[in-house]
Amino acid sequence: MNYDVTSTTSSGPYLITLLVLMIFYLFCMWKIFTKAGEKGWKAIIPIYNKIILLKMTDLPTWYIILILIVPIANIYATFRLYIELAHKFGKSTGYGVATVFFPYVCIPILALGSATYNN
């Protein structure tokens, strides 16, 4: 069998782009945490960052179970989390819904824009 080497080497630019996008997203989450008065490093720890987001949005901590474990309920909990986050930054419910579908656009707008966290 002959394998086309070019098809496997073309994934390099894709992986680099993905890595840059992930680093930028983490940077933006760091900024959001900082705006909310939390330490930025908390944004880079998996699961713990969701717990802190729940705290920032005044949602119960047990929502972490819904987000991580319970099927179907995780959809509700994720929407609720991002809608409440949008409200905390003075944005609309529609912005929170958009954040679920387009996080790589909406999160940087919250982080780098003029939106301020309202406790």
Domains (count): 1
Q: Total number of helical segments?
A: 7
C-alpha termini separation: 63 Å
**Broad shape:** globular
Overall pLDDT metric: 92
Kindly estimate the percentage of residues that lie in beta strands according to DSSP: under 5%
- What sequence of helices (H) and strands (E) makes up the elements? HHHHHHH
Uncertain segments are none
Q: Strand tally, please?
A: 0
Query: What is the radius of gyration computed over CA atoms, rounded to a whole number of angstroms?
Result: 17 Å
How would you classify the helix and strand content by structural class?
A: mainly alpha
Q: Main sheet, how many strands, which sense, barrel?
A: none
Oligomer: single chain
**How helical, in percent, are the residues?**
55-70%
Describe this structure in words.
The chain is mainly alpha-helical. It is globular, with a radius of gyration of 17 Å. Helix content is 67%, strand content 0%. It has one domain (5-112). It is built from seven helices and no strands.
Which helices and strands appear, and what pairs or packs with what?
Elements lengths: L4 H5 L1 H25 L12 H9 L6 H6 L4 H16 L4 H9 L1 H10 L7
Question: Which descriptors apply to this entry?
Answer:
67% helix; 7 helices; globular; single chain; mainly alpha; 119 residues
In short:
With 119 residues, the protein is an all-alpha fold. The protein contains 7 helices and no strands.
